[in-house]
Amino acid sequence: MKALATAPNLVEQVRDALLDEIAAGKLAPGDRIIQEQIAQALGVSRQPVQQALALLRNQGVLHDAPGRGLIVARLDPEHVQHMYDMRAVIEGLACRRAAETNADKAAKLGPALIDAGRRAVASGSVAKMIAADIRFHEFIYGLSGNPLVGPALATHLTYTQRVMGEVLINNEKPRDIWDQHVEILDAIARGDGARAEALAREHITQAAVFMIERLKAPQVEGLAV
Fold first, then answer.
1. Domains of the chain, CATH where assigned
2. Sign of the CA dihedral running 56, 58, 61, 64
3. What band does 173 get if pLDDT is binned at 50, 70 and 90?
């Protein structure tokens, strides 16, 4: 971990740094979280670390450890299914509204995100692939014009990063999700709300099937299946 500079959003920076470590497999399911070690590694006081840990616990990334403290949560495929079910509905709505209200903005700004996503896949970096995927989806939330979409999906996106990291670090060849992202973006840019919503739901549903199959696979160790 790199030392972080003090900033108003320091708690979020600490949370993101910890989530990156977990998604990259540097902190594995069942590993105990030591506040002092994290604070020292990031160059911050214990207070923002404590607050960041509370956020990750509430988002299901961390669980209470036997006795006291926190550990990295083991992924539960049933919970993953519920999470993707929620995402499919809300993201479908977001894509429909994006097409209806911000088609021009999607056409103008979206291609750069697609290019960044393809570069991330080519790099082979788990962190870059996850970050690019999250940025694309958050872009759509912004295009929807509904300020409730992003907050409603924030916890689910956090858990999604955990799922993606768990699958990718176990030598899983990435699916070409960016072809699907292109289709979704094109539908939004054309102002075709119905098509954009249908594609988004299909995209999330397929992702759920793919991820859950990998989480249940015998070769993926340390998971609650």
1. 10-72 (1.10.10.10), 77-216 (1.20.120.530)
2. positive
3. low
